Amino acid sequence: MKNFTLLFLAIQFTSLLANSQNYECVKENAVSHYYSQDSKPVLSVRIDSIKTFSDSIIYYNYTWKRQIENVQFINEASWLGGKIVKLTNNDWLFFNMPLDTIKIKASAILNENWTFYKFSDGSKIKATVTGTDTMSFLGVNDSVKIINLQKVDAVNSNIASIYNDKKIILSKSYGLITVFPFYYFDYQTPDNLYLNYDVDQDSLYQLIGMSNPEIGWQNITARDIYNFNIGDEHHTLREFQCPIPPTGNLTHFEKRKILKYLSKEYSLNNDTVTYSAERCLYDCTSYIDGTTHYTFTHDTIGVQYIFSAENLEGFSYEFICYLYGNASSLIKYKSYITTNLDIFSNCEDSTTYLLYDGGSFTSYYPNLGSYSLINTFPNGDEGESLVYSKVNGVENGTPYSCSALELLAKSLTINQIETINYQIYPNPASDKIIIQFDNSFSNSATFQLYSITGENILSKSINSQNYELDITTLNNGIYFYKINNEENNTSVFGKVIIQK
């Protein structure tokens, strides 16, 4: 009986020892990424510096830029707080914006409880380890502790709270699996402080990835954004609209562009990628004097990206300084990045305000490149959007046609010299089109009709001054035509609408 008792105590001691092993809330040698729900940014933990004392270790996370007084910004703590303190007993202390303490007892055993957070009215959040288990997440297995929260009043009676039954999960080897944005915990935003971060203040964030070991979601970088393959295509629309009255010579432009990637080459240091691409470019530019110019370009160009110059390695709400003192904030989502480029007039230390000075808001997508909305107040807004993509054979959107863009530019050219005298009517047409030439016609021409996507719908030889074309089989829509005079090889272009 005595041996059995000793064996039972030994097993119980081993279980307690396993429960109280040194769980770590934060991995200091890894970047951890957290996420709450769709459309919300990925929030990251990256320890930038560590200070060690006799009774504690202090971890400093990277800083965010916070907006105050509408147009001024200062450096301040990120979502888990500016610093995280680990005590010698393996208690971990986090701090909200007013620097109140939030405690996680990482070595607590099953059913152990403690004061997680204390409110100013004497009530508090009580934390209890309600479970220990092995959990599978992000393709790995690890021991975890489940910490349940309950709000109690000053005499320790349970009271209602949005935090009740919320569960923080702590992994032995990978740190916090679920966690609140502690910096915003129990904090009401003053009127003069703009928390312009899309953060769920009272929601639990889930670990979705880590850099060491490399598991789950990984930080999106310039290498992902500008990773195109031979045969990939990007079709874009870029527009500029000037306010009325205009402040410059331009009032509007529209650029439709097709890039099809033909070759790809990396530099020796692997920091630069260079592509050759077939380009089709339609350019419509309107001027203050009322004139509009249309041009079309079809050529092969070189496209180069220097990864280190893109400054996309950081994490959500981290600020990056660019040339000439301008700054940018990064926001990382699960599938893309956005930045506020050149939004600040200077980059200074944490005690200096940064003043808002207009900017460009750019979105970056893996394998698709970057697309900007540029605010050039008071000169107007300029924006570029992706209308079609082909990536590894997978298509999205509605493509442009190179031949259709050429036809569009030529058919709309105001200053085009017509060397064929003709009329085409009715326009719009329903069942037939009549093409009528003057007496100089040589009875030798071709008529080609194209859809708006550039598909050649029909071709006809014309050998009379009055030619009637049956269009009863064609669908309603806008079509472009080309008439070629075979005698002197001159052409005219135009547009016709079919409306039945």
Could you characterize what this model shows?
The chain is mainly beta and 500 residues long. The protein folds into three domains: 21-214; 222-397, no CATH class; 415-498, Sandwich (Immunoglobulin-like). The protein has three helices and 36 strands. Strands 18, 19, 20, 21, 22, 23, 24, 26, 27, 28 and 29 form an eleven-stranded antiparallel beta sheet that branches. Strands 1, 2, 10, 11, 12, 13, 14, 16 and 17 form a nine-stranded antiparallel beta sheet that branches. The longest helix is centred in the N-terminal third of the chain and has 18 residues, at 2-19. It starts with a helix and ends with a strand. 26% of the residues are buried. Residues 1-20, 349-357 and 414-418 have low confidence and may be disordered.
How would a textbook summarize the main sheet? 11 strands, antiparallel
Overall form: elongated
Beta strand %: over 45%
CA-based gyration radius? 33 Å
Question: Helical content, roughly?
Answer: under 10%
Overall pLDDT confidence: 82
State the end-to-end distance: 101 Å
**Whole-number count of domains:** 3
Low-confidence stretches: 1-20, 349-357, 414-418
- Structural class, from helix and strand content? mainly beta
Please provide the count of β strands.
Answer: 36
Number of helices: 3
